[in-house]
Amino acid sequence: MKSALIFGVTGQDGSLLATLLLKRGYHVFGVTRRPSSEIQCNLNKLNIRDRIKILVADVVDFQSVLEIVGSINPNEIYMLSGQSSVGTSFSSPRETIESFSNATLNVLEACRLSYSSSRVYIAGSSECFGNTPIKGATEITAFNPLSPYAVGKVSSYYLARN
Known about the structure:
Elements: E1 3-7, H1 12-23, E2 27-32, H2 41-45, E3 52-56, H3 62-72, E4 76-79, H4 86-91, H5 93-113, E5 119-122, H6 148-161
């Protein structure tokens, strides 16, 4: 049975991804910073809370990420966590950028140091491109981040690419 580790499992994208992976027969582990039931409302609405192993950790804390990745050694890791509001990123730029760049680096380093063969997915955002022409962005559109949120996402992209 394949296994997946989702950082940010309680968010909209994380909970929907968990549902899809469960339907495909995966054993799903989800990481959240806060285990409270109100934070897990997406999992409860989708009736999947009892089918996921919830782990509590802060993805910005390297040691906890290393322990989780090393002990589970999942087939796939999905990095979906981070401060999710572009507007809020202006009032908390350091925390926002760390929630993406440091977290991404922690996941990648945990894989490297634990000799994990996990495939890693790092979520991007259209915010990385800033204001785009009427046709939108393509694979060759240059990044032009216009917020701390976007800077954090671009940083994550380059960390994963490197």
